[in-house]
Amino acid sequence: MKTRSNTIDNGVRNTRVVMPRLFKLRVWAICLALAMLGTASSEAAIYNINGDLNDALIGDTNNDGIGDAVGDVTQPEITVGFSGGGGAERASVFPFALPSLTGQTIISATLTLGLRHKFNPNTSGDLYGLTRTSATSPVVTGDYFAGVLDGANTLLMNNFVTNNFPVNGNTLFMNEPHSVSGAGLISFLTAQSTALGGPGFIFFRVSPDGIELPSGTVVGFPSNDQYSFNAADSLTVGDFLPFLTFETESPVPEPTSFAMLGLGALVVLWRRKSAGRME
Asked: 86 versus 240: which is more confidently predicted?
C-alpha cells in the first residue's frame, strides 16, 4: 500500500494512505451490494383452497345450445354429458374463493377434480377457466357451454376426462383424481386475481365435447351417457373433492441496517475522493 505526504498551511506534515485502484473498486462494489440488499429476497406462500359448496351442473333442457337450469347444488356429485332419453345436455361448474394476492406472483398451481362415475361416454369432457369473476359463488346459466371449443373462456385442458380412463364402459364408482397444472393455469389465476383486485370467486367448468341437436340426435354423446364428478358437498370418506393449490412469492425488504451501512460507506468514500481532488 502506498503513502503520499502533503504539507498543509501551518507547516505540519500530514501523511495520507492511498489505496491501490483495484482495491478501491472492490470496496465500492461491496458497499453497493450492501446498499442493494434491501430488495434482494422474496417470501413464498402456499394456498390450499377447497371447492365452494355452490358447485352445480347447468342443463340445456331445450337442446338449443343455451343453458336454462342450474341443478344439483346440494348433491354429492354433478354431471357432464347427456341425461335421459334424448334429454338435456349438461356441464358442471366449480367455484373457488380466491384470496387477495396483491403484490404476489403465482409461481406454481394445480387444480384437482375427482371423477366419480362414468356411464359409457364416447367423447371427452374439456376443462375451462371461466372469464367471469364474482363477489359471490353461485353458478349461473350463462356459465353453460357444450361443444368443441368455447372461444369466450380459457381452455385449460382439452380431453380433461375421456372414455379411456381407466376403461371404456360403465363404471359404477371410480373416485379417480384428474388434475391440471402448469403455465396455462398460472396465467389464468393471475388474470383472474388481477380482475378481482382483491378477494372473490373464480370458476372452472367441465364441458362435453358433444352437442345434442334439437331433433334429439346426439353428436358425440349417446343419450344418458355422461361423466359425474365429486361435488364439494360429498361426505364420502376418501372422495377426491374439488381442490386448488398454488404457491406465490413476493419481495420482502431486508432489515434496513444493511442498506444504511452500504449507503453510509458509499458517502464516506465519495467524500474522501472529493477531498483528495481538492487537495
From this structure: 240
Burial of 78 (0-12, 13-18, 19+ CB in 10 A): buried
Domain containing residue 29: 2-40+254-278
Give helix 21-36 / helix 256-278 axis angle, nearest 10°: 150
Q: pLDDT tens digits for 152-180?
A: 999 999 999 987 655 444 555 678 899 99
Domain check: are 167 and 264 in the same one? no
Q: Count of domains in the chain?
A: 2
Q: Say if residue 23's pLDDT is above 90.
A: no
Helix ranges (H only) for the chain are: 21-36, 183-196, 256-278
Minimal CA–CA distance to 111: which of 123, 124, 99, 94? 94
Helices (H), 113-161: none
Task: Based on the fold, state whether residues 27 and 163 are members of the same structural domain.
Answer: no
Whole-number Å distance between alpha carbons of 121 and 116:
14
DSSP 8-state assignment for residue 124: -
Q: How confident is the prediction for the chain on average, in pLDDT?
A: 79
